[in-house]
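Help!! Second protein's tokens look totally different from the first
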Amino acid sequence: MADLAESTAKLQLDEETGEMVSKAELKKRQKKREKAKAKEAARSEVKNDEKVKPAPKPKANAEEPAIDPNYMFKTGFLDEVFKIRPIKPVFTRFPPEPNGFLHIGHAKAIAINFGFARFHGGQCYLRYDDTNPEAEEQIYFDAILEMVEWLGFKPYKITYSSDNFQRLYDLAEKLIGLEKAYVCHCSDTEIKLQRGGEKGTAGPRYRCKHAEQSVEENLKKFRDMRDGHYKPQEAFLRMKQDITDGNPQMWDLAAYRVLNKPHYRTGDTWKIYPTYDFTHCLCDSFEGITHSLCTTEFVQSRVSYEWLNKTLGVYEPMQREYGRLSISGTVLSKRKILKLVQEKIVRGWNDPRLYTLIGIKRRGVPPGAILEFINELGVTTANSIIEIKRFDQAIRKYLERTVPRLMLVLDPIPVVIEDADDLDGTTITLPFSPKDPKMGSHDVKFTKTVYIDRSDFREEADPAFFRLAPGKTVGLLQVPYPIKAVSFTKDDATGKVTEIRAVFDKETKKPKAYIQWVSTEAAGSRKAEVRIYNSLFKSDNPNDAPGGFLSDINPESEIIFPNALIESGFDEVKRRAPWPEAAGESELGKGGPESVRFQAMRIAYFALDSDSTDDHIILNRIVALKEDVGKS
């Protein structure tokens, strides 16, 4: 036992190869790599006959400095926005429609609005823009708040546009009294003609005859709308703006429409409901919003936003627009995701392959990784369409420094080490991270029978294959002696290897490769179902795929290993979750099953799935390891 502990303590992990080597050997390798990098850098800088200075040697395992978490507020667009209106206290708002689940693009809106207010010592409202009773459900209200809190933000107040229905109605009557609104009965076709046709260029713009109605007539008709005397589309209130303006948002927009639909919160009280263009700016005004931050699709709306507040003589917030965030290689449309759910292509709106926030959360992506990713992208007026692999790389970089490491075997084969009787049942202490001692360590029992992954064994030796094969030696991570395969048994029916016999190879000091292993269940290891998630679609743009996005489904988007084994350290990782303590998972026990995250050495990063039970562990792959690419 003493020899085992002493030998293990002398070995260190080579991060580039996955091998366990002596301290002296690791130092030698690092110096060799530094020299190779310096030479390559020098060669790439040679121009003409200039004398090239040697490239500086990089520090081994140097930690990449974390970006300032407030970077996007200190520089660029958001810094300029505050300088335009440098007033405090700052009040912002996040105003989602409660008619669907939020996606990755909304994470940027949450981070900007809540983060901007927090950076400047202010507050941010969560306001549900619930003016369309045809699509609103409680499940969406709840999911929106859950995602805001998961990202680490607390609303100053939770408000509803519907709280202001009476106040908005009164202001609509005031607008009519100012001769700045009228009740219109035109059809959609007639309105398009009034606005110059489909593109606004087919002819001169003009107002319909209803714009000439008196204040009294408009008030009577508007009250008749309120009292249910009109059916939907028979009448609607239009703002009397400037039909000659070059901006379509000034072409007498709708302010109220008739909807015979009970509202989730107000019931049958109202037969008419205000539009976004009428509601949004006024609710901003009611709440004293200083900086109304929205995406660039509302650039043209800024003119009508300012016109309405100014016309009614109410407090005027400042609207500014930033570029929205989207992800290529997937779909974010509510209609298309609903189709995926209905066709049972995915497990639900929270399927780990989707880029809804509840899906990203279930996959195990930490909220802190999302915030860091958005911060690193920065905020400009340009829309950002990010490749999935770039998003994955940001998550991988975050997980690399924040989660513990464990050993996991996806497709286990038992290896009986025939001469391991002396070590059977002994304890090996393993660090949770070779880079961060603060993560601590845990003990696992070494057993005479261990399990390795089927992919780490070949029935015939191959000079290019450095793992286990008959007569070949491979190292077991953190075990002092490598093993050599001496025989194996196969199932006659399936042709699969069912057992490998091996012995310790104490003569080989430095095996060419090391592999992970797991002890028997009797020693504390646990069975697990492992779900490997890949891209849901085959192409980078499923929306343009021949036959539509449903014809672009990747048949290998979910690969399940039902009989995986994970080492006993998993129980300690679960007990100490969340990993890491950040954003909405800021303290011990604060976080769902997805906060149980770890790196499975040589495989990928994983998190516990919400379907897991104490007796049935289910793990989701968050992202692959960078080292997986091209590994022999």
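Here's the second one for comparison:
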Amino acid sequence: MGCLYYFLGFLLLATRLPPDAAKRFHEALSSEITPGYIREYNQLSGWSSDENDWNERLYPVWKRGDPRWKNSWKGGNMRVVLTSDSPALVGSNVTFVVKLVFPRGQKEDAGGNMIYEKDCRNDTGSSPDPHVYNWTAWTEDDDWESGPNQSHHNVFPDGRPFPHHHGWRKWNFIYVFHTLGQYFQKLGRCSERVSINTANVTLGPQIMEVTVYRRHRWTRVPITRAKAVYLVTDQIPMFVNMSQRNDRNSSDDTFLRDLPITFNVLIHDPSHFLNESAIYYKWNFGDNTGLIVSNNHTLNHLYVLNGNFSLNLTVQAAVPGPCPSPSRRPPTPTPPSLLADDNSLELREIPGEDCQITRYGYFKATITIVEGILEVNIIQMTDVQMPVPQPADSLMDFVVTCQGPTPTEVCTIISDPTCQLAQSTVCNPVDVDMGDMCLLTVRRAFNGSGTYCMNLTLGDDSSLVLTSTLVSVPGRGSPLSMANGALVSVVCLAIFVTVIAFLVYKKHKEYKHIRNSTGTRGQGLNVFLNHVKVTFFPGSREKDPLLKNQPGTL
């Protein structure tokens, strides 16, 4: 009797757990199953349930930590990078891009062959002579396509045949994507992409996994796997870029008073889901200017007071959405002529296929408004006259005025006339007390004569203001310099001749009594010298202290 119980128990165990049970897709693809693993998901277009059988004989399954992973690729470890363009607004498409990262010294050529570079060191040491691995050479030699087993090897893990597109034999990698209890298979090269529509995707973060196999004669070898988190949301993904002229650091949310701030709304919509939607932007800048509604994603706003302000933005868009189910209405009296037309009554309760739903997006920020430098101007340029011998560099003085508080630093960049090639950069702190008026003189040296482009900036803790000008520096032999030198020489010569004449006159003149004389000899010369003396030596006039009250330069 005990043997009978033992035999029946063995049969029951054999029927419940067959020794050669086939793996399911979710068993082969999921690296780990959490206790709250959900088996029921909405159907994704073009994807299949992961309850289907997996062909483990053709596609072996290796778990994490299996030592066979180290030898799955010749020349080192293969890696894969999986990225997505999420977050995605529900109803839009989210795209995943997978890219294989080959070991150092390897690459895929245009024909799909692997190129091993010469003397390239990788995880397994330096490679030998250049080697080209032709994936399809063995297929041509064996004429495998005409063999009886061709259909058994040219299939995906679920048994579906490879699509025979043009050049498909050069697609040497099999990608199996897995998410939301469903899988998608694709034959491709070293980089591929796949997209899913999120209309039936549960809101919140989701996980996408990908397992990559390579073709190796009549079997497939797993080479790498990866996973990535993507987000599906019912709020419009967006970001607001805030910028302002003269603002020193736009990332600290501190801006200047009395200058417009540009607010640019960037909606994240890579699949162009909102292209046909009417989008409205509702602004509240927190400065008692009221609610501003616009259909333009860019808006300028001016703050006239210092302080902290709360910015609130609401974006509204009408997008395609699920139509509501028809609501049951109480029966109403119907004319006898319409009793036979039941279809017309039913159509009135069925909503159209172009139903829309309103989606919203929100943005909040706290910005700080401070006083800053608003404008800078160069009002005068002066060539600095240096004593002989002159230095190699030419000096120029620039009188600069600005609007706003006193700057703390001044910087100049001197470059070629096109303002492209910088020659020198000089920065100096501004440590002079200018009072209420922003006015200072900046002296800079130029390397010889010619035309230069000079960028001048004034800055403080919150602002940075720029102005540019072209500077023409005269040379030593320029006509202007020669004319100035000649003029100085003539003046000096005239003064020298006058002084000599005066000294000669003082030495040889004789005192004579004033008398009546009819002779005029020498009188003209004396009058001339007296005029010269008075003109060039006014100190020889009467020493009247009242004359000291004349205006002069201090």
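Reply: Different proteins will give different token patterns, so don't panic. The CA atoms of residues 276 and 418 lie 45 Å apart.
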